[in-house]
Design goal:
By secondary structure, the chain is α/β, with parallel strands linked by helices. It has one domain: Rossmann fold (3-Layer(aba) Sandwich), CATH 3.40.50.300. It has a 10-stranded mixed beta sheet, with helices on both faces. Strand 4 and strand 5 form a beta hairpin. It is globular and about 55 Å long.
């Protein structure tokens, strides 16, 4: 385990869908104001693990877990914890941009309105769009449909929508998989800027991306039983240049996966 300031932690976390265990006994720390990447082949539980951090898996009726998921030292799965509140504190950006069929302004204002925001909504929308590095591109068409934006712009709008509810952590599930290289680089640069104020966890199949943007990397794989397990976790520089486990080295060098 890393000796630093964790904002999220898993302790012996195993995840089940019905009787099927899909992730087994994962223990790791997500550090404050750092970018943590989760990498590994398909079907190893990366997205499942990510969704444990903001209780999105609760929406699956057969989901249950053992072990602990801690946020600021408190167990997220205690019966008294409000899952909806957690999803505002730990925001999520999905694989494909998913703007609402509303105006650009209303997309960003949606969460604060639901939360009963009492401040200047226009200022909050502008601030969120600026933080997501898209304000200059949309400031003259805030009333236009969000669906009129390009894919990369839509994804940055979704990041702005997440920022508008003032989260502490941002989860990103393959946020660049549907974007072209230019849009991908824009999102990566944005992630680096946001990590000065937010803690970010990203799931990605793109190992070059993980190496470029993350401070820490967790490598998951599934062997004979097809249950995802944490093979190695550490500083990204070490993981990608001097992995300690031969399975990690085999994966990052393309020998399997």
């Amino acid at each position: 385990m890393l000796q630093a300031d964790p904002i999220l932690q898993t302790k012996d976390l195993s995840v089940y869908y019905g009787a099927n265990r899909v992730v087994t006994e994962v223990s790791l720390d997500v550090l404050r104001n750092r970018i943590t990447a989760i990498i590994g082949p398909s079907g190893t539980g990366k997205s499942t693990l990510l969704r444990c951090f903001n209780r999105m898996n609760d929406l699956i009726p057969t989901f249950h877990l053992s072990g602990e998921v801690l946020f600021e030292g408190n167990n997220l799965y205690e019966p008294t914890v409000d899952a909806t509140d957690i999803r505002y504190q730990i925001g999520m950006v999905f694989q494909r941009p998913n703007p609402f069929p509303k105006s650009i302004f209303d997309n960003v204002a949606f969460g604060p309105r639901i939360n009963g925001y009492n401040g200047n909504l226009a200022d909050l929308v502008e601030w969120s769009l600026q933080r997501a590095a898209i304000w200059d591109e949309v400031k003259d068409r805030l009333k236009s449909s969000a669906l009129s934006l390009s894919g990369g712009q839509q994804q940055r709008l979704c990041i702005a929508r997440t920022l508008a509810v003032e989260p502490t952590v941002i989860l990103m599930d393959e946020p660049c998989s549907s974007l072209d290289p230019i849009a991908t680089l824009a999102i990566e640069e944005l992630m680096r800027e946001l990590s000065e104020e937010y803690s970010i966890v990203i799931v990605t199949h793109n190992m070059q991306q993980a190496a470029r943007v993350s401070n820490y990397t967790a490598f998951l794989m599934a062997e004979g039983d097809r249950v995802g397990q944490l093979v190695e976790f550490g500083e990204s520089r070490q993981i990608f240049t001097n992995p300690q486990d031969e399975r990690t080295e085999a994966y990052i060098t393309g020998r399997f996966g």
